[in-house]
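User: quick one, sequence for these tokens?
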């Protein structure tokens, strides 16, 4: 649930969702499709067919991605579901209509992201807190997930200071979410920034955009570095003049000889 850099994030084997991945040679490996097919059969949908009615299982995916750049990704989604015998219907709309579906809870599957407001695990876990359900409470829990066990853990964790006790609660909360699967976790972005040593107080992150007022420049170091990096190099000029001399001096001498010969 948590991205790197946020307290509670577990890296490596400790952070692997065991319902989705196995560890093989020290690396996570997604479980084979046969396990997904077995789960479908256990749920009454062998090969994607409703055992009771004989009808195929159809899933609706709502998205606001309507541009041509999204077509390849949406086609890829269809192919992945088709590998399990499931029919995925793409319902693309404009963003206003998409938000309306979120408010009413009429979407079945959808993709949405989250830009955190502050770097604390509470700002991520509250997205699945029952009392923050979007339909009933107008909150940011767009999945409208509600689990009393998870909510109780969240209430204990949210205002707790970082430490082993809070980490244990976070681990337990992650285990609940992995078991229930209200989300299919996607990805978190990684940003790279290069800056000079004389550029101070810079802390690149994906949350704050108002950092300009905190930035500072060390003019003495900047001047020193400019002098160090921009020392005048005279040898190219000398080399160019020498090359010109090699070409021009003989040409001038030859021209003078011709002039003198013509005068005689």
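Assistant:
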């Amino acid at each position: 649930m948590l991205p790197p850099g946020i307290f509670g994030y577990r890296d490596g084997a400790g952070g692997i969702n065991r319902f989705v991945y196995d560890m093989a040679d020290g690396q996570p490996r997604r479980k084979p499709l046969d396990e997904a097919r077995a789960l479908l059969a256990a749920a009454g949908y062998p090969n994607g067919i409703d055992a009771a009615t004989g009808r195929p299982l159809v899933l609706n995916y709502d998205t606001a991605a309507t541009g041509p750049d999204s077509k390849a990704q949406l086609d890829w989604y269809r192919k992945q579901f088709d590998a399990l015998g499931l029919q995925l219907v793409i319902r693309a709309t404009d963003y206003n209509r998409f938000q309306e579906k979120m408010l009413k809870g009429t979407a079945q599957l959808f993709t949405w992201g989250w830009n955190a407001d502050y770097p604390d695990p509470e700002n991520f876990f509250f997205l699945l807190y029952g009392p923050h359900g979007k339909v009933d409470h107008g909150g940011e829990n767009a999945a409208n997930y509600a689990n009393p066990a998870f909510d109780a853990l969240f209430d204990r964790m949210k205002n707790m200071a970082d430490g082993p006790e809070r980490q244990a609660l976070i681990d337990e909360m992650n285990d609940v979410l992995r078991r229930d699967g209200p989300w299919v976790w996607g990805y978190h972005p990684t940003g790279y920034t290069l800056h000079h040593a004389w550029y101070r107080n810079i802390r690149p992150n994906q949350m704050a955009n108002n950092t300009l007022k905190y930035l500072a420049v060390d003019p003495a170091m900047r001047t020193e570095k400019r002098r160090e990096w921009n020392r005048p190099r005279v040898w190219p000029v000398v080399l160019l003049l020498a090359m010109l001399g090699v070409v021009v001096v003989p040409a001038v001498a030859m021209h003078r000889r011709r002039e003198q010969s013509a005068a005689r």
